[in-house]
Amino acid sequence: MGKLEGKVALITGGNSGIGFGTAKLFVAEGAHVYITGRRQDRLDRAVKEIGGKVTGVQGDVASIQDLQRLYEQIKGDHGKLDSCSRMQEQQSMRLSEPLRRSTSTRCSWGM
User: Fold this and answer.
1) Structural domains for the chain
2) Does the chain have fewer CB atoms within 10 Å around its N or its C terminus?
3) Environment class of residue 1 by beta-carbon count within 10 Å: exposed (0-12), middle (13-18) or buried (19+)?
4) Which residues contact 91 (CB under 8 A, 6 or more apart)?
5) Angle at CA 10, nearest 5°, toward 1 and 14?
6) pLDDT digits over 56-98, tens only?
7) How does DSSP assign 45-107, residue by residue?
């Protein structure tokens, strides 16, 4: 049994780089991990490579509508979110106001 067994994690930008590595580790430790990215083809490749309990959700974290859809999916699938990590590269983070507002109230809750 892994250290994260039964946990649900969200890793934005989890389809590449540090986010991808983090997602692989979390899945290996037993978590169900949701990864996000704007490009469906990259998400599909990441999900296939990570394997196991991972769900790719296409969307832009700069879009409040995409974030709402993401949270509704997690809530419907698991009813909770235990961990949330933002992993986008700094230069591509035009984001951040919708995600900051959203995660400050959403990532610390149990849905």
Assistant:
1) 8-106 (3.40.50.720)
2) N
3) exposed
4) none
5) 100
6) 999 988 888 998 999 999 999 999 999 888 765 443 444 444 4
7) HHHHHH-SSEEEEE--TT-HHHHHHHHHHHHHHHS---EEEE---GGG----HHHHHHHHHHT
Residues composing the chain: 111
Q: How many whole angstroms separate alpha carbon 9 and alpha carbon 17?
A: 17
Find tokens 């909770």 and name the residue: 80
Cα gap 4→104, rounded to integer Å: 22
What is d(CA 23, CA 95) in angstroms, rounded to the nearest whole number?
21
